[in-house]
Each structure stands twice: as structure tokens, then as C-alpha cells.
Predict the structure.
Amino acid sequence: MTDLLTTPLDGLSRALGGRMVDFAGYALPVQFPTGVMKEHLHTRAAASLFDVSHMGQAILRGAAVAERLEAMIPADLAGLAEGQQRYGLFTSEAGGILDDLMVANRGEDHLIVVNAARKAHDFGLLSDAFGADFMPVSDRALIALQGPAAEAALGAMVPAAAGLRFMEVTVAEWQGAALWISRSGYSGEDGFEISVPAARAEGFARALLENPAVLPAGLGAPLYGKLDADLAAAMMSINAVKGVEIGAGMAAAALTGSANADEIRMGPDGPEFLSNHAGGILGGISTGQPVVVRFAVKPTSSILTPRRTITAAGEEVEIQTKGRHDPCVGIRAVPVGEAMMALVLADHLLRDRGQTGGVRGTIG
């Protein structure tokens, strides 16, 4: 632990009893004395404060930033309006995912937030592509305030934050400190991510924690309940399933950001999507479109040709099978997959009703 990097909130996390662990090379709390389960439930019921300062923050400036960045990321960044943020992916030439990131258009520049474990890699890509127009940020902390009470808690301190809608960003002030605020997060709940000058981070966090609705949470708690993750897990639990795609899946990596974006227009009965590359799920939350999941099946093979293997003792031998093992799995996988999908959707619907009472806002 002595060789680990620390964040501006390290002292506060330790003072609050955080159990510090190695997380992407940083000493960060995996949980506090309340425990992971209580932190999980509190995030669902009120608001939790997470230290995510280990993540990489950077600014891009210069001409045609969005267009240059869109050449690297399959997301519609050229159409990203000022004051809005978008989720994106760095992909390899083969279409694999290298990392995910957030891109915010702040008018005079674009703010980038990447994962800590891939920070050096991602910053290297951005530096090569943007040169002097790429400026990593090293003097700010990043705080995530997540949960249904997050708006009230942050709005009491920074009124401008309460007016933000999901995936909108702004710059606001708190006691003379400039805050970079986005309404976003990875908890599956409403919430905000707030970039704070490092010297003011502990004071700002303590002020939030004075609100009885806000408790500290470790990194053992923020990721849970994403619809696409649960669907993928359900499909992969079916015998012989070897791969899962949601929406455009792997093909999305071959699309430009503009082509991959699912545009929306107002129809006679409300908002209507013009495409469904996302497969009905964005950020782990259903969009109201049809949920599209595909999976690949490879039935267990019965190969008559001798194949090389080893015994438990490590002896090299040949094995030859006879008969068939589960020859109908490919046919049965379809109704089983449909049933698994129905179970996951029903589970999420019931959880949503329990948390929100089924209350929904309207658009238009």
C-alpha cells in the first residue's frame, strides 16, 4: 500500500474508516464501516458520495475537436451540443473495446474522463492525435454523488446543479471554487459527477456529508443492476452460448459515431427513435425501444477424430468420443433465451416499481 498513488480525498476516506485497497494503482476505499450492502441500499434510497478521483480528466481544445475525436470514437460527437455529455468507446482496429469514456462539450473546449486503469493508454492515444491541444488535468479531484436524493443535496449547495438534466454539464461556483458538474454516473441511479480543485475537495466533500441524506460509499458499491449486464449474464448462463450482442453489438465498432447514434423525433404519441443501434438500452437503462439481444451457440461437439489432450497427471494422450452430447441445444436455446430475457425484464420491472412506484415523467 505504501507505493500506491493517493487522491485528494485520501485523508478524509481514512478518517471516515474507509477500508483502503489497491484500485488501479491508487489507494481507495472499497467500503466504509457501514458495509457494502448498506452502502448499496443507501445509494438506492438516498445519496452516496464516491471518490472517483483516480479517473483521468483531460481537456481538448483547438479546431474541429469533435470531428477529430469522432474519428477515434464510434459516437456522434459532431452533433453534441454545448452543455451536453456523451458516452463513447475507444476501439481497436478489430472492433474490440479498449476503454470507455465520457466526452463533454463545454463550448470553448471538450472535457474527457477516462478510466484509471487505462489512463496512460488513453492519454497516449489522445496526445498522439491532438498534440498540444491535449491537456491532462492533474490538479482536480472527482466526486460522484449518486442516488435519488443527490439533486436535493447538491442543489442545496450549488443551485445551478439542480437544473441539469441527464447527461448535461455546467461550470458552477461553490465558495469561490470552480466546479465542473455533469449529471451522470455509473450507479444506475440519478446522480452527478463533480470535478473539484484538489485543494478544496475535502472541504466540499465534508459539506456534502453534513447532509444526513448523504453517506460515504466505497468502490465496492457503485456498479449494480444494469439491464444489459444482467441480460448478458443470463444468456451466457445457457449451455453452449459462446457470445452475446446487444443492439448493433460488435458491428457498432465499424460505424461512425453519427451513423451509430439513435436519433429521436417527436411523433404523434410522443418521442420516437429513428433507429435502434443501442438495442433498446443506454447506460444500463432501457430506452423504451425493443430490447434486442443476440447470442451465438456452439453445441457440445462429439468428435470421432482422435484429439490430443492430457490426463489429470499431466500425461499426454489422445481421446476419441462416441455418440452425441446434447444434439438439440441449438434448437432449445431459442425458447430458453426468450424465457431468460423475460425473467430479467420482469425482475427489472419489479425492482423499478419497488424503487419508484412506477412514476414516470413526460416529454412534450
Notes: The two ends are 53 Å apart (CA to CA).
